[in-house]
Amino acid sequence: MTRPTIRDVAAAAGVSKGTVSFVLNGRPGVAEDTKRRILDAARELGWTPSHQARALSTSRAFAVGLVLAREPELLGADPFFPAFIAGVERTLSDRGQALVLQVVPEDEEEAGYRRLAGSKRVDGVFLLDLRVGDTRIALLEELGLPAVTIARPDVPSGFPAVLVDDRPGIVAAVRHLQELGHRRIAHVGGPAHFLHAAIRKKAWEETGEGPYVEADFSAAGGAQATRELLEGKEPPTAIVYANDLMAIAGMAVAQELGVPVSVTGFDNTELAAYVSPPLTTVRTDPYLWGRKAAEALLGLIEGEHKTDIPVPPAQLVVRGSTAPTGGTER
Amino acid sequence: MTRPTIRDVAAAAGVSKGTVSFVLNGRPGVAEDTKRRILDAARELGWTPSHQARALSTSRAFAVGLVLAREPELLGADPFFPAFIAGVERTLSDRGQALVLQVVPEDEEEAGYRRLAGSKRVDGVFLLDLRVGDTRIALLEELGLPAVTIARPDVPSGFPAVLVDDRPGIVAAVRHLQELGHRRIAHVGGPAHFLHAAIRKKAWEETGEGPYVEADFSAAGGAQATRELLEGKEPPTAIVYANDLMAIAGMAVAQELGVPVSVTGFDNTELAAYVSPPLTTVRTDPYLWGRKAAEALLGLIEGEHKTDIPVPPAQLVVRGSTAPTGGTER
DNA sequence: ACGCGAACCTAAACCGGTTTGATAGACCGC
DNA sequence: GCGGTCTATCAAACCGGTTTAGGTTCGCGT
User: Fold this and answer.
1) Taking every annotated instance into account, which residue ranges of this chain make up the domain HTH lacI-type (chains A, B) (predicted)?
2) Are the C-beta atoms of B76 and A82 separated by less than 8 Å?
3) Cβ(B255)–Cβ(B277) under 8 Å?
4) What is the pLDDT along chain B (330 residues), one digit of tens a residue?
5) Which pick of A47, A204, A271, B30 has the fewest CB atoms within 10 Å?
6) CA-based angle B85:B86:B92, to the nearest 5?
7) Cα(B142)–Cα(B130) distance, rounded to whole angstroms?
């Protein structure tokens, strides 16, 4: 028994294919009575339209894409993607859309987008990990592929964006440390070519605080940067990290060196609350971003006008890893 | 300027659509000369076949699916998926296949598979987080959807599987602890209805060691379980955890309670090497599993016979979190 | 009684590939 | 020189939807 097609439904309801199609797409101009007959027939036969056929005639893919250009190991440690993707799915699945993932080595990122666009596999894409002077923006415009980004304030991307402001989180962390009496507060940032790393660094710079070390968001990088800071002359009494992973690795280094130092992270990963001492960090909501981004992207694909979507700013979560100067951290 | 179609290529090469199609699919029976003319024309025009049209006429989706039925928060902390997916992609992208992701709440898992199958969006799926008496096996058979699982020894799944053996890793961890003088070695496992949790537990049981607490693979669960163990009478001197996340959370609890206890994790997450003390754990290779699983799935879809694929067993990575009894853990 | 527009529906073309049955021509042996 | 096979190619049907350009039918105004 093969899958029923629109033809079968049409025959069962005694109408033409065209009419069934009209009903399916909620077009006006079909009598109530006929409409019901068709819907009944469809239910009876268990018919669902073949989205392949639909895709062919409407040249829509009914799917959106996500290109991840990171090394697998780094991906594994990043709490952002799974949550973001879950949020995206939340929106997509309600609307019968699918999410197509491409994971590519960093140097094949462009090819990844070209593949998705060229084979018309997706109707639009998410643009993540925005970089300074990101070449992908031009690429996507060239490809004519609708896109939505996760962007930061003051950096126009040319696409509608979910506007995430990391600054209040960083500022709050620094203020919190200052209130605890810290006067030399360092920052361990992510690669500065990433917009989100750059803006966190900028927010921190504007507080006028101490030394800065650039790392790469990895545990290894965070540990290394911490060692540099603590073994240098005039070590800071507190460190603001650009993510939890580096912060946790940094805490371990400080413990090993026996240097008491307050630390804050960024992301509020699940583990943050369960390390010792529990990590003071900044809570973000990638799940929400995913939902919003997907809504925006679908809207864009439908031809809506592009607008940015603000989301609530990151919030500081105070835990035990920050303590008054001179006090003991553990 | 619209995308060229097969018709354009045919016209340019002075042949019929059919012949172009034959060449494209590498079918025999086309003269060398004609073949070259067609390929030249195709290159000239920059033609790539529309996979939508292809999908319609061959009723193949050229995509495989992955259903993730976990809460977003848990997903974020799990290092398995990103690495697995990266491996999968590695295989897929070479073969022009796409990966369609579905993230659903746990109670909608079945609907997720039905959606993928019903809309013919994918030609096959990966079946992950296999459970004891998994109902999805019957479901997929009912749906007639080819599938590949990540399975454990001795538990036939009915589908070709990447055969992962966690036991040597657990056994090695216990032996290692025993050699260090530990005599009461506890196990904090994952939910027992998961096959991988069950088999780790079983391997540990067969070593004849101490108390067992079931947790849920989360940091919170690991911390809670650890507290129970250490605050009970006859606390263990070592704990074997079923994943790194619980192990790290457990270490923190032990530190807070001031109880010296050796711990081992499972997964070898990036962070494992950078906590204090560095975590002794078991290294697995989900990237490889992803590659193998994708190869198997594509083979299966092509109609090859199903066979299980063994992968190298997990290996113990000894670090500082395991120390001789009576010695200091930090 | 007739013309007209609205409401409803149909037939057929189309999307861009794959696949099948037919055919034209080359080559073969006798 | 003729039937028979083989090769290379073509034309047309098909996949399962959407869309457009007409038809019918009907009620209504005059």
Assistant:
1) 4-58
2) yes
3) no
4) 678 999 999 999 999 999 999 999 988 888 899 999 999 999 999 999 999 999 999 999 999 999 998 776 677 778 888 899 999 999 999 898 999 999 988 888 998 998 888 888 999 999 999 998 899 999 999 998 999 999 888 777 778 999 999 999 999 999 999 999 999 999 999 999 999 999 999 999 999 888 999 999 999 999 999 999 999 989 999 999 999 999 999 999 999 999 999 999 999 999 999 999 999 999 999 999 999 999 999 999 988 888 899 999 999 999 999 999 864 443
5) B30
6) 85
7) 18
Residue A20: which residues within 8 A CB-CB, separation 6 or more? A6, A9, A10, A13, A38, A42
Q: Establish whether the linkage from the previous residue to A310 is cis, with ω within 30° of 0.
A: no
pTM (two decimals): 0.92
Whether B63-164+286-312 and B6-49 are alike in CATH topology: the answer is no
Nearest to A86 among B59, B75, B278 (CB): B75
B:267-286 residues touching chain A, CB 8 A cutoff: 269-271, 273-276, 278
Residue pLDDT, tens place only, A76-117:
778 888 899 999 999 999 898 999 999 988 888 998 998 888
Q: Omega before B4 cis (within 30°)?
A: no
Helix (H) or strand (E) holding A310: strand A309-310
Gap from B183 CA to D3 C1', in Å? 93
* Strand arrangement of the beta sheet that strand A63-68 belongs to: A309-310, A161-163, A147-151, A124-127, A63-68, A98-103, B98-103, B63-68, B124-127, B147-151, B161-163, B309-310
Superfamily for domain range A6-49: lambda repressor-like DNA-binding domains (1.10.260.40)
- Report the residue of B109, B274, B288, B289 to disrupt the A interface, i.e. the one with the largest count of A CBs within 10 Å: B274
Helix (H, G, I), strand (E, B) or coil at B285: coil
Residue count (chain B):
330
**B148 strand-pairing partners:** B126
B5 touches chain A (CB under 8 A): no
Q: Is there a contact between A100 and B76 if contact means CB atoms under 8 Å apart?
A: no
Structural domain boundaries of chain A? 6-49, 63-164+286-312, 167-283
> What is the CATH code for B63-164+286-312?
3.40.50.2300
A185: helix, strand or coil: strand
Flag whether residue B138 sits within 8 Å of chain A, measured between CB atoms: no
Q: Is the CB of B14 under 7 A from strand D?
A: yes
CATH class of A167-283: alpha beta
Give the bases of strand C that a protein CB approaches within 7 Å. Answer: 7-21
Residue whose structure tokens are 């997509």: A92
Three-class secondary structure of residue A16 per DSSP: coil
